[in-house]
Amino acid sequence: MTGRLLGIMLLLLASTQRSPSGNAALLVKVIEAGSNQPLPNAEVIDLDASTHRLTNADGEARIEWPDHGRLRLRVRQLGFQFADRDLTRPADATAVVDTATFTLSRVAYTLPNVATRAAAKCAADGDAASRALAAVALGQLQMSAERYESFRKAYPFRIKQKRRTVHFNANGTARDVREGTEEEKSTQWGERYQPGRVIDRRANGFSVPLLFLSALADPVFWDHHCFAVRGVETFHDARVLRLEFQPALNVSSVDWMGSAFVDSATSVLERVEFQLVGLQPSDIVRRLEGYTTFRSPSPYIVVPDSTVGMWWRRGETDYEPPWNGPDAVQLIELLTVTYNKAKPPANAATPRR
């Protein structure tokens, strides 16, 4: 009996030292420069296989060695400089015994006094320092959205949200209030950005898919917009970088403009303000605007928390003074996030500085 138990123990030990497929694997550990603290949810990318893994609460991820024994890895984390490294498997590697440690340094924002735009299709302004800041800030903004995409693939979840819509009379009194809850899978949460189809005109009204977090990582959205760094503001006691976006010069259809507010210490996305531009006089909706705030369910990961959208259908002279508010306001509030299987690293509050 003892021999059988010993055999089982050795088998279990071997299984913990090998990757799921049985091939040798590399343990990647990601830490912060200076503090040497582990970085959870850092993204480890196999550049050849185009696979993405997120580090666990200990800042670790396992990467399987390919048959040819070479890995080209990129490790990145929101608010840090990314690191690339070429690695070769040791000849005697048969288990997860080799560790590659990546030490990441924080991004440093050097704030200019002028704005900058980041595409040839936009009106260029700013000096070289401004353009360099734009490249860093835009890269962090895009990474924040991309990290959400990786997160919901690594940790599939379901959300429950509340939707409350209030329609107002011309004098500002509420005439209709509707409220209900909705559930969505992480794979279906949020609507895609589609240029030229931001507003869906109908005989009896209109439909607008609101600007979702994933749009900020969508190359199509970037191709149709210009971004500008507009300085630093205070938001909830944090210093935030304000990045404005608007349709590119060659966009003639209805589209989004607005601002994204990024924490200047952590690069975490705090808020996005948006409004429709390019509406025609014949459109039923005369004006639509709103904002989205974010919450962090796991370190360095943000998801939409609440979205407020409001729209005006009447002309300015159709309201009864002193009311000049919207005809309708809609609040979408995230209530719960439930993970299907594995839970992500616990969020001990993304550090602020």
Which secondary structure elements does this structure contain, and how are they paired or packed?
Blueprint: H1 2-16, E1 25-32, E2 43-46, E3 51-54, E4 60-64, E5 70-76, E6 83-88, E7 99-104, H2 128-154, E8 157-168, E9 174-185, E10 200-202, E11 205-207, H3 219-223, E12 225-235, E13 238-247, E14 255-263, E15 269-277, E16 287-298, E17 301-312, E18 328-339
Parallel strand pairs: 1-7
Antiparallel strand pairs: 1-4, 2-3, 2-5, 5-6, 8-9, 8-18, 10-11, 12-13, 13-14, 14-15, 15-16, 16-17, 17-18
- Please count the beta strands (DSSP E, at least 2 residues each): 18
**What share of residues is helical?**
10-25%
End-to-end C-alpha gap: 58 Å
Structurally, the number of domains stands at: 2
CATH architecture name of the largest domain: Clam
* Beta strand %: 35-45%
Notes on the protein architecture:
Strands 9-8-18-17-16-15-14-13-12 form a 9-stranded antiparallel sheet. The chain has a 4-stranded antiparallel sheet with strand order 3-2-5-6, with helices on one face. It has a 3-stranded mixed sheet with strand order 4-1-7, with no helix packed on it. It has helices spanning 2-16, 128-154, 219-223, and strands at residues 25-32, 43-46, 51-54, 60-64, 70-76, 83-88, 99-104, 157-168, 174-185, 200-202, 205-207, 225-235, 238-247, 255-263, 269-277, 287-298, 301-312, 328-339. A hairpin with a 2-residue loop joins β12 and β13 (238-247). It has 353 residues and is mostly beta strands. It has 3 helices and 18 strands. It has 2 domains: 17-104, Immunoglobulin-like; 139-339, outer membrane lipoprotein receptor (LolB), chain A, CATH 2.50.20. The termini are far apart. The chain is 13% helix and 41% strand.
